[in-house]
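Re: folding output
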Amino acid sequence: GSSLLTGPEGLMAKERENLKRLKCLRRYRQRYGVEALLHRQLRERRMMATEGGGQQAHTTRSSQRCLAFLDDVRCSNPSLPMTRHCLAHICQDVNQTLFKPCVGSEDVPCAKPVPVTFSEEPSCPLHLRLPPPMYVPEPSLPVPEELEVPPAELYLSAAELQPTESLPLEFSD
């Protein structure tokens, strides 16, 4: 914008007015002086307060990893949002109420975390107990071994099927 004012030909009055408006719009709602200093300090205090919370805000990459240990080795999976454990180890957190371990079956025990539902025993898809089928097939009727042959008197012969009266030509096929 400032390079336009230094040109040899200069600006016309209308162009100068438009340039002045553009500069005013650029500075609109920007803080200057003491107001800008106080706003920056407030923003810094808010950042320090959220970082200092620690438990509520996970700001560093190390705090986003799961806290569970397997054979003295820390789990490297990312933690679930707002928690300190990954999906595989979320049941180790005693304060959480959204997941329960799968009860499994007598043959195959299972401890996979399953979201809590309205059922008493939440289970993973592998151990899900299906309800009994609602459709019960009707008993079939007994089929006779041999079908009875109807008497031959019920059938008409070809001679009996011939018309007895003479029909017009369009029906004589």
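--- second protein (sequence, then structure) ---
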Amino acid sequence: GFRVTLWIHPFINAECASFSEASAHVVSDANGLPALTSWWQGNLAGYFDYTRPSSGDWWSARIFKLKTDFGFDGFKIDAGETNWLPSGFDFSTRLPTNATPNGYSTAYVRTMERFGGMTEVRTGWAAQDVPIFTRMLDKSTVWGKANGLATLIPTLFQFGIEGYPFVLPDMIGGNGYNTVLPERELFIRWMQANVFMPTMQFSYTPWDYDLELC
């Protein structure tokens, strides 16, 4: 009875068996050769190029196959920001100068729109009209303004001012990068704030604490 979304990303490591096929669809340099980047799971990787429609189609067909073969309801799609672009990237034949490199993120979001309303991305540029979730970046498990609970509502307002209505807050209680539960009061207050926002996600769950929170 649960809806299940799959976490995916727009990178392919150079050592992957399918890299030779995929290399025609990653960001290239001015000579048309694959330009490699580094990310959190690899130092030599291709970054799929959604500014090239044929590459977006190629990538999307494979992701749709995952969805249909395994019955996923949607996707949590990571990255997409321009800071992951490799040095020497070249979009000169596809993006105007005043949309480079940010137009990469626009093309990325518009590609992800194909997967429907349960899709989430964590970046966007000139993509306010795309009806999918735009997620806040990871929040820390703290009370204050150091990326903690105190920043949750201001970040939501900022998204709204910028024209993004389908805001997906980060995990209740913070992102949960360690195994220590957030203090109970912090978790409760975070959940209370989050309940008035478009959707809720948990790193830690109420039953991690006690039956009273369930």
